Amino acid sequence: APGTPVSSLLAPAPGSARLVTPGAPGSDPAQTLNRPVIFQTARMGTLGIAPPEKTGDGALFPALIVALGGIGRRVAEELKRAIFDRYGATDRVPNVRVLCIDTDGTDAPAGDGPRGLIAPTEFVHTKLNRSAHYLQRDTLPPLDPWLPPGALYKLPRNPGPANGVRAFGRLALLDNYRTVAQRLRQEIETFLTDEPLAQADRATKLGLRTNRPRAYVIAGLAGGTGSGTFLDVAFLLRHELRQVGYMRPEVAGLFFVPPSDPKAPRSAALGNTHAALAELHHFQAKRTRYGAAFDRAEAPLSDENPPFARVAVLQLPKGADPAHARPVLASAARALYHELLTPAGRVADEGRDVYRNAFPAPAPACQTFGLFRLSWPRPEVLAAATRRFAQGQLQRWIGKEAGHLREHIAEWLARQWDERRLSFAAVTETFNRCVRDTLREEPERVFDAFVDPLRTRTPSGGRLDANSACGALDQLLKLVGKPECENGSEGALVATLTARYEELAKETEGHLAVMAATFLEVPQYRLPGAEEAVRQIGEKFKQQVDALEPVRADLNKEVRAGYARLIQTIGALGASGLGAMTSRKANAAEVLDLLRSYPRKRLQLHVLDMALSVFRKLAGNAPEYLREINFCRATLGELQAALVKDAAPAPTSTGPGKMILPDGCKDLTAAADQFLAGLPAEDLLAFDEKLQKDINRKFRGLGSVCLKPIEKGPAFRELMLTKAREFLDTKLDHSDPAAVFFRARTQKGTAEPLLAEAFDEATPDLTPVGADKPHELVVFGAPPGPDGDRLLALAKSAVPSADLIPAPLPDDICFYRELPQVPLTDLPQLGAHAREAYLHMGTDHPPHARTDVPWAAPNS
Q1: Can you give the pTM of this predicted structure?
Q2: CB 3.0–4.6 Å: which of 172, 273, 544, 616 could bond 221 by disulfide?
Q3: d(Cα 698, Cα 700) in Å, to the nearest integer?
Q4: Distance between CA 774 and CA 313 in Å, rounded?
């Protein structure tokens, strides 16, 4: 009886099995024939065979969401957004597959589309063509039997979407049938193995419900694409499921209709809806066998059963603004999410089965529902915090403030200067060693070897002649060369020093590159540290150059003056006249001293020049390293901008309701920022250090990512978001929504009114026009446990008139109110006002998708 509590009907009898999957009214549970009975056909090709049926006490089952037209696609996007917010990636629940089909390709998803929404591989563009295309295509079955007369020639020269013409939507489906059928088969084939369910179970811990798939067709019935194709797609899905062995395929329909307001003008959208519902009623009532030819090369599809095992109809709000429809679409997506990925879906299915068996509908029926959530949006806060945290990390990495790092970097560079032998003393020692290795002796001893014979032959210094002195000088000049102001060779040692300079410059450049890149890979430093290190390195080299240039200038003057004096004194050795003997002795002593000092100073100048060249080169390289750091900064900045772009489509949680947020937080972003602000600095550093290890292992360092952004950028972004979510998940409050509810509602008398308000807000928007009040299924989802039990008791007290069916819903508090057995003929969209809109559409806008079926008024 209508007054019988459904909660008592749901209690299983002793020894009875729990319901698993709802079927069509009066049908047996979904079955699969044994493998030997399935005969391979030409169309099956390489398709597999459905595996043996498995059932369990969990919530997971394979589901294919086929979203038609713009409305269907928006619901699919909302569903994927909910999945992404809960699990961080939509591919973590591969048992839920999505395929969008639309004649409108202007907003087709691109490869860099928003995270968590429709991917390019999940979209099929059923493009409309010019009329000549359909007349010339050989594989297309004849159009005249079903296409309204003259409709083909009303296609524009450059067709766009179906634009509200249902026959055009069906024409596009037939023209693209092979592509659509192939994509449906590919999606169904994924369910022929246990891996998608096993992977989803590992991610959700929800357990197996059944491995029998369920397909959902989602469409708006007021337009051209979804309204014109929803029945054909349903029968095509049934056919493809049977082809792989699911002999009782289950297809559910979720449809959206405009309001039928007698005070509003009649519209083509309402007329389309009336026609679509009439066609749905026709096939659900099994008034005739379905038949359709999609391709000349294949036999026509034929089906004597109703297209849908279950139909849900929701009413859209008035007005054409897409934003006004979002609450209804989000509500549908949230209900679908609960059905696919929570235990509450199983409870609702069992309740529907009870109503169907206890109160069977004599005619085709549908459902309509509403829901309202009181949620601690932990998944949504976690998703928002993950994006904000990743953005903040990248912002810290690319920042420029390095004042707090300056002292630490200076100390580190001082150690590096010693370890890498970059000081002036170490560099000059390198060149001096090179000279010693070349001469195989200390250079001073080699120089003395040329001068000492002159001193030995002239012990008194008086018999040194100019020729002997010139000979010794020539030997020395061959080694060290003449001063810069003189013409002649630079000396043999210059070539040796130059070769060593090239080696040393390359070696020290490598040191500089390592030191510049080191901080890029060090948490707490990153780009600000690398930039500060390069600045300090450049400054240290500049200081060395500035300090050595005056020394070099003075030494060069000494070398030039000493050489000039040496030439002068050698020339004076041949002087004659009074005092010549005394003068020669003085000149000979000076010549010997100058011959000893000149090569030493000249070699010292060569070494100083080489050291200065090294320091100048390294100081000149600093701007280049700064440019590379800025390139890395730009790359990471682009990655940060991509994260901001990805965050834009999900500013609020999916589904109508109220969020239980921390005090002072107005939205998810504020809650995420408050949570992130409370993270200790040591935890942030620990995360950065762990992330760096992952970056090194997968990409060989952050610098490699920056230098190859196109190749490695997307994978790096995924790694960063994944690791950030794992880190934040351990820090965010794990309390369930029920505990958060009571924590927030500490003031006496405020909890029950909120629950009563939520119950009223969940009232379905679509009101049947039948005389009998329809039965209502009310599911109250709350987290299991003491707080959830307390909340259920409070809800029963707040709405004593409702027969609440409790359902475990770990992440939410939700009232779900459904009218499970509404006759299709009780929908106002099949009433008199809608029929008037249908009858006034005329031949320019034919209401029916096909004319080869004798449609009858549903109420006749």
Answers
A1: 0.69
A2: 273
A3: 6
A4: 15
